[in-house]
Structure formats: structure tokens, C-alpha cells
Amino acid sequence: MKIETTVLANVLQVVDTVATDEISVLDISVDSRSLRNNAHTLFFALKGNNHNAHDYLNDLYQNGVRYFVVSQDVLLPADAVIFKVKNTLRALQNFVAFYRKNYHFPVIGITGSNGKTIVKEWLNQLLLPFYNIIKSPKSYNSQVGVPLSVIAINDQHNLGIFEAGISQPNEMEFLEAVIQPTIGILTNIGPAHNEGFSSKEEKLQEKIKLFKNADVLISEQTHLIAANKPQNPKWFTWSFIKEADVFFERNDTVLSVQFEKEIFQVNLPFTDLASVENIATCITVLLFLKVDKTYIIQAIPKLQTVQMRLQVKKGINDCLLIDDSYSSDYQSLKIALDFLEQQKMYQQKTVVLSDIFQSGFTPEVLYQKVGQLLTQNHVTRVIGIGNQIGSHLKNISQFQSYPNTETFLNDFNLKAFRNETVLIKGARSFQFEKIVSELEEKTHETVLEINLDAISHNLNFYKSKLQPTTKIMVMVKAFGYGNGSYEIAKLLAHHQVAYLGVAFADEGVELRKAGIKLPIIVMNPENSAFATMIAYNLEPEIYNLHELKAFLQIAENFNLFQYPVHLKLNTGMNRLGFTQKDFPALIELLKNTNLVQVASIFSHLATSDMPEEKQFTLQQIERFQKESTYLKEELQIHPILHILNTSGIYHFGAYQMDMVRLGIGLYGVGNEAKEDAQLQNVATLKTVILQINEVDVNETVGYGRRFIANRKSRIATIPIGYADGIRRSYGNGNGFVLINHQKAPIAGTICMDMLMVDVTDINANEGDEVVVFGNDLRITELAKIWNTIPYEVMTSISHRVKRIFYKE
Ligand SMILES: *Cc1c(COP(=O)(O)O)cnc(C)c1O
Prior knowledge:
By secondary structure, the protein is of the alpha/beta class. It has 5 domains: 2-89, Udp-n-acetylmuramoylalanyl-d-glutamate--2,6- Diaminopimelate Ligase, Chain: A, domain 1; 103-302, UDP-N-acetylmuramoyl-L-alanine:D-glutamate ligase, CATH 3.40.1190; 310-382 and 398-440, Mur ligase, C-terminal domain (Protein-Tyrosine Phosphatase, Chain A, Alpha-Beta Complex); 451-677, Alpha-Beta Barrel (TIM Barrel), CATH 3.20.20; 684-807, Lyase, Ornithine Decarboxylase, Chain A, domain 1 (Beta Barrel). It is 31% helix and 23% strand. It contains 27 helices and 40 strands. It has a 12-stranded mixed beta sheet with strand order 20-19-18-21-17-16-40-22-31-39-36-37, with helices on both faces. Strand 24, helix 19 and strand 25 form a beta-alpha-beta unit. Helix 3 (88-100) runs parallel beside helix 6 (172-179). It binds pyridoxal-5'-phosphate. Pyridoxal-5'-phosphate binds at residues 475, 477, 523, 604, 645-647, 661-665. The active site is at residues 477, 703. It is an enzyme of class 5 (isomerase). Substrate binds at residues 575, 752.
């Protein structure tokens, strides 16, 4: 849109005047790394706890961005148009709220503790035949995500569906102003503690602010909502237990629906409680919108599971696959292309893309925009599948097209994919999962799923405990505590952490080969690896005189100049590190050389997780402060000082110094229950049931006949064993797995590659998913049963278990 700068300045509430008449804004952005930033992008420089987009404005200018919304003084060439405001996030929201006012069709706003995304996606599936819908991509529901969703509205749309999520008081009014919903939906209100509220009432009162100007609120009929709902909107309700506009009764897999004195039956596609409630919400919305019951009866059973994930998988011929084979709207293509750039391992980027539905644009306009997006993102090769994309995207370079997925699979030589990062993105009807399954490296069914969003969440949690200036080093040693190396390192690079820490040089080499450019410290450098470390620009921890002399020798051979090294002091752990008696010789060696420079001085705490040892921890910290100060003065240097690990950050934040070293917390495990409650689970170890055997009374199961059936039993065999990292002592009834959210105790002895579980009392079938640990059975709980610590459980999951990385 073309917009007069005076108008824009007014909307953004600028504090400085802007000298230009009119600018043309075609896109907005808050991501300095996105490749689609260009001359017509209005860039909002957001400030986070540890991230400040103002630091990247010059890079953005170099990439062609000219319009900036900032909140601090910046120095940019004269043709940059700068809007200075008090708060850039509020300016973003104000801008989108202003944009939103141009449209007057019904807009559904959804909030609640759980089910927002599912209800949004299901309503989209159900209402598709009747409307041109604009909806939030993925689960974009935050203070930033909502404006980025709403800005995509255009003239062609006639229904909006947006979700809003909040985590603390006083956030909803801003989302309300952006979405301006006319129809409100409240999904449910979970326990208060899982978001930052002190009571359920407080949480509900905050959430329902989304509906204050809506025409109608659709929700379950409950006392709590009745007592708290705003006056304005009409209330349209559903219930399973009492009188409501829509009354449901459930009989196993059939839902009977009573509305305006009529009763009809719907077959349920999903039968777990949460899904049934979400279906009830959707049916109520359809009835409110006067959708005919015959359509409801035939459409509900066809609802499909909602899959929002972008998964990173290892492909054939060293390819890296990004699997987004469940959605194809234009908004989520933008997100997927940003993610492709963030995760890419190779220069060669290939995109396999189906026809795009529901953009609100005519095909000509849509594919012109898609073509631009692909070009801006430097995609090397595009394979279009579908009739529309084939005829409209011809003009971009390296484009091949196929009418459908079958033809592509038959005619294309899949083996030709090699050393490239491949994004596979298509609408569900194209069944791109077939392409993914052909290109995926084959391994057995057991996988460790890693939630990249949870890692980001956990990183931000610890950041929030630190001063904005405190650097963060993340420990990715031991294959990222068993979770994965370069995939996690790429994410950390994206978050711009200061350092990565590995245990051995070869771990650092692997990261460098995958294109990681962050500074990397090797904690256990072996003399034999010094030359390799120098070749790959890895920085050694130096912990004694013998090692220092050896490194200086190599440094001289390589003619190094001020190569960064990190001095470790032993302040009580008594593992590695210099003590005071070494100082005279240490100072002597370092004073007289220019071969290396001390980039940091650090020490490691032995008891930061033990409240009863607080005195000892403080003693270590004090000793470190004294000794590091002495070394700094003697050597006349200004190194980074650091001592805190995860539990140190949590308990001893006052001693964060210049940097902290975050380890286990990033992977979702704290050292006490309160800390755990604020972290998100990262890893889920999953497998499937291979076979179920019926076993008679007195029959036995497994090696040594250790399980003896005392009743007729059903025994399920699953393909995971001690060679995958499951403790053998977990067998014989000591441990259990989860199948369909129910506990199944381990029956008999754990084998090398398999184990058996008793499923007599639960609902389980061959092929069902089995969870060994994850969100519902946290690693901490497992570690207790294994009589060890979570660190050991995490790092003992064998490398033959495939890791799959995903992002919601
Ligand atoms: C592993 C390690 C850390 C991280 O410890 P966590 O308890 O996992 O946070 C920090 N510093 C050093 C020197 C380490 O070896």
C-alpha cells in the first residue's frame, strides 16, 4: 500500500518528524535474517531480552531495506526513512490495527489455554467450501505473531480466523486491537500455573478481553465464564451436562447434537476427550454460522489431524530434508523459507512445492508473489507439482514441473538429490509424505524427536534471568547432551549466542563442517588435536602449565598471533584447572608472548544445584573473583569472566559476571520442580508396537522366563532395547512405557534391541505409538527410577536412534 508518511507517523506514534512525503509498503518484517527483506519492507526493530534488532540495521540497509521503525538513535545513510518511536512492538501492533480497520468481514478470534491451533485449523478445514479464509499460519499467536498474521489480510478474503495466546497479565488488549474479532471463541481454561497467572479467574479475565468488542462469544456453558464474561457480546454456548444453545451427548464414537429442538448424530473421527471438546466447539460455531446439518454430518468425520510441524530429517545422499508436507498457504511458505535458510547445510537449496490454495489472490498475482519469494530467498531449484503452479511459475530459473505427485515419483530420478537442503512443502491432498518417505534415510522405527521451539523457549527462560549484556555460552558437548549437534547449533546461531562449548575437538570440527561460524571452545583439548583445532578455528580451554607450554609450542610453529584461549581455574572442584601455586609460572609464560591472548577466565561450580552446599558455592565464587582479579591485574588484560552453569544461573544469578555457561536447562531439565515447571520438554523418545501376543496363565515371556503370566495376558513387543540406551535394570516391572497415554509395565527382561510390555489392562494395537519419555513422562522421572541423573539418561540414548528435529 502507498501511505503518506504523516499518516504513518501518526499511526506509529513517532517521537521525531520524518522527511519524505509518501512511501510504498508491501511487506513488514521483524526478522533481520529473513532474506525477503527489501526496499518495500517496513522493518520494525524489536528489542528482546538479549536480542536487539537495532544492531543489524546496517546489514538490512545493505540488503536493500529503506524503511525503519526504531526506538533508539541510529546512524543510517540519508535515503533511509526512519520512524523513531517509544516502543517498536507497540508501533507494529498499532500499524497492523490501523491496517485491519480497512476490512469489514467477519473475523473469528480464538483464545484459551489449549486447543487454539486445532480449533483454528479444523474451522478452516470445515469452512473452506463457504469462504475465502485468511488464518494465522502455524501457531502464530503471540504479541509479534498476531500482527504478522493479520497483516496478510487482503481484498479477496471474506472470513478471518486468528488465534491469540498470552503468557502474562495485560497482554490481551493489544492483541484485541490487532485482531478486532467480531466472533470470539474461548476453547478452555487450563490450570493457572501453566501460564503466568495466580488464579484461574485472573487468567480468564485477561483472556476474555479479546471479546470485549465482539458481537458474540462462543464457549462452553460454565459458571466461571458466566460470572466473568464481558457484557457486550451475545453468549452462544455448548455443553455436555446442562442446558445450552447446543447440547451434546456422547455415546462412544457417536456424538448426538441437540440444537433448536432438533437432534442429529455425528460420527467422531477422534475420541480422546480434548478432541471431542474441540469438535463440540467447531460444531457450535458451524451452527452459529447457519451451516446446514447435513454438511456437518458428512464433514466432521473427515477432519484430519493437525500437523503444524516443520521437521528436519536426514535424507539420502547427505541431503537435509525439511518436511512441511501438510500445508501450502502463502503465509506458511514465507515461514518455511526462513526456516530453510536458518537450517540449510549447503549452498544448494531446493524447494518441492505443490499448488497453493487459499491465498486470497488470483493465480496470476499469487504465483508472481511466490516467484518473487523464491528468488529473494536464493532458492537454487524449484520443483512445482500441480496444474496451477506448473503453468504459472515457468519464468523462474531452474524450474521443473509435474502435474501430480505420482508422475513426479515415477519420472524424476530421486537419486539425483545430493548434498542439498530440500524443503518439501505441499497441501495435504498432494500426499507429499510419499516424497518424504522416498527421500528419507531409512532407519528403524525408534526415533528421538527434538522440539526446536522448546529449546528456544528454554534459552529465553534463562535469558530472562540475566542482564541484557551478559553473554551466553551454550554447552553442546556430547552431541548436545544426546539431543543433536549441528541442528541445535544452527538454532543457537540464529539466536546469536556468544559461544558454543564442546568437549572434544572432533565435535567442534563437525560443527564447523556444517557451517557453524560461532566461536567454539573445546573443554578437553588433547595435545594431539591442537593442530586440528587451529585449522578449524576452535579455541582451547587451557587448564595447566604442561598444556599451555604444548599449545604455545604449536602456536609458534603455526605462526599464530593472539590466538584466543580460555584459562580454567580450579576453585574447589578439583578436576581440571590452575591453582595459585601455578600463577607465577603462568604469568611469566603469558606476559612474554603474543602467540595467544586470554579471551576468558573461568571456573566450574561443584554444588550449584545443592542448596545445602550454598556456603561452598559462595566460597568457590569468592576464590574465583579474587584469583581472576589478580591475574587480570598482573597480565593487564580484560578477559570475559564466567562461572555459572544452569543451576548456577537459577540459584546464583548475582554472580553472572560477563558470561554464563548454559547446559542441561536448554534441553528442558532443571534441577528442581519449580524450575522444571517453567521449562518445556525438548526430547521425546518414541517407538511403535511391532506385535501383540496373547499369553495364557503360567506361560512366560522373554529371556530367562522372568515374566510369568498369572492371568491371560496381552504382551506387546517394541523395537527398543539396552543397545538403544534403555537400562536393563528398567525391566521386570521396574519401569513402564506410555501407550495412548496409559502406563504399560515392562514384562520380563529387556533384550538388546527389543523389550516387551504388558498391555492387558490398556487399549493398545499393533502399530500404536509408544513413548519411552517425553512430555507426559519426563526424563527427570525416568532418571529417578534408573537411580541416576537426567544428564546420564539423555546422553546414553544411542546414536543409532534417529533424531528428528521439528518446529511448530
Ligand atoms: C557441562 C558444563 C557446563 C554446563 O553444565 P549444566 O549443569 O549442564 O548447565 C558448564 N560448564 C562446564 C565447564 C561444563 O563442563
